[in-house]
Design a protein that fits this description.
Blueprint: H1 2-32, H2 34-68
């Protein structure tokens, strides 16, 4: 249940973040060029992957702690 709730939260959060990233990337493309937008999008993707890995590790630790308690 802990992991399911965390993954549901991440899915909802990533849905909202993807819209914001697309909007900011469009503005960056207009004002600074496609290279700046590509760098921004790649940074956002790396951040999302890092968040997913961190949430997965944290929830697995919480599950183990709950089972031992």
């Amino acid at each position: 249940a802990i992991r399911l709730g965390a993954m549901t939260f991440l899915r909802e959060e990533y849905t909202i973040i993807s819209g914001v990233v697309a909007l900011v990337a469009a503005v960056l493309t207009w004002f600074a060029g496609w290279q700046a937008a590509a760098c921004f999008v790649s940074g956002a993707l790396f951040s999302l992957v890092t968040g997913f890995i961190g949430m997965h590790a944290a929830t697995m630790a919480n599950v183990r702690t709950a089972l031992e308690a």
